[in-house]
Structures are given as structure tokens and as C-alpha cells.
Design brief:
The protein is an alpha/beta fold and 155 residues long. The chain is 31% helix and 20% strand. A 5-stranded parallel sheet has the order 3-2-1-4-5, sandwiched between helices.
């Protein structure tokens, strides 16, 4: 695969996912981890290298499908095309061992995250960087805390 300018950034996992990856994997126990709005799969691929099945969900999976992945690694990735804005939430209660949601902010998803996350499971949410015009996508102060209700916070 030939790399073009910008590919390294696009393929590098989020620093938060790298930092908490082993904790997310450990908390998931035997359940899959959801990478919500996975894009190119940078975070899912990283987590899959740690040995867990990752459900990669995005409305457009072509960037992820274009990755040149080894067969053992690709078997850990479960691709599911879904538009979180238009489509129904497909995951049942306590079916996910972890949820990673990086740079995609849709407040309506948080009650579903809470319901589908197994007890002791790990939710990692990273907002878009607050520079340029991205600030309009950032949640309002206190909004996420109110949406997460019973979900406890871990470092």
C-alpha cells in the first residue's frame, strides 16, 4: 500500500485510544468492542492488534475496506454499515464490552451507549479538537455528564 500525505495521521490511533487501549480490552472481557463512527478504522485496527473483536460501524466503510490488513487481523474486525443519524440502534442491552467514540459527537447516542455497555465495560469518548470551525460540534458544558447518568468514570 502506497502512503500519501496525510495517511500517517489518518492511520494513527487516537492518543487516548493508545493510552487506554489495554484498559478497554481488559474491561471488555469476552464481549466485542464497538468503534462508533470508525472512519478509516485507525482505532479499531489498533484495538484488534491487542486481541479483541471490534465492531466497526460507520455510514461509509470504504476507507476501512481499503486498508491492506492481514487475514488474522481482518478476522477480528466486524464491519457494519450504519448511519447513526437515520438508522435504528442495533445493539441490545449489555452486549458490548467497550465503546470507542472518537471525533463523532451525537448526544442522542449516549442513552444507547449506556444501555448496551456491559457492567464494568469501558466507554471512551473523545470530542473533536476545539480549533477552527470544529467548536460548533463540541457538546455544551455539562451536557455529557447529564446524558451519562449511571455510567461511572474511570481514569
Amino acid at each position: 500500500m502506497e502512503l500519501r500525505p496525510g495517511d500517517i495521521d489518518r492511520l494513527t490511533p487516537s492518543p487516548l485510544v493508545r493510552r487506554f487501549g489495554s484498559k478497554i480490552i481488559a474491561a471488555a472481557i469476552d464481549k466485542p468492542i464497538l468503534d462508533a463512527a470508525c472512519g478509516s478504522g485507525r482505532n479499531a485496527i489498533f484495538l484488534a492488534t491487542l486481541g479483541r473483536s471490534i465492531i466497526c460501524v460507520d455510514r461509509d466503510l470504504t476507507k476501512l475496506q481499503a486498508q491492506n490488513l492481514s487475514l488474522p487481523l481482518s478476522r477480528r474486525l466486524i464491519l457494519r454499515q450504519l448511519d447513526f443519524v437515520k438508522d435504528a440502534w442495533p445493539f441490545g442491552p449489555c452486549t458490548l464490552g467497550g465503546i470507542v467514540n472518537v471525533h463523532f459527537s451525537l448526544a442522542e447516542l449516549f442513552p444507547f451507549f449506556e444501555e448496551s455497555l456491559s457492567p464494568g465495560g469501558y466507554l471512551l469518548f473523545e470530542t473533536v479538537p476545539g480549533h477552527g470551525g470544529n467548536y460548533v460540534e463540541l457538546p455544551k458544558a455539562g451536557q455529557l455528564k447529564g446524558l451519562l447518568g449511571k455510567v461511572s468514570r474511570a481514569d
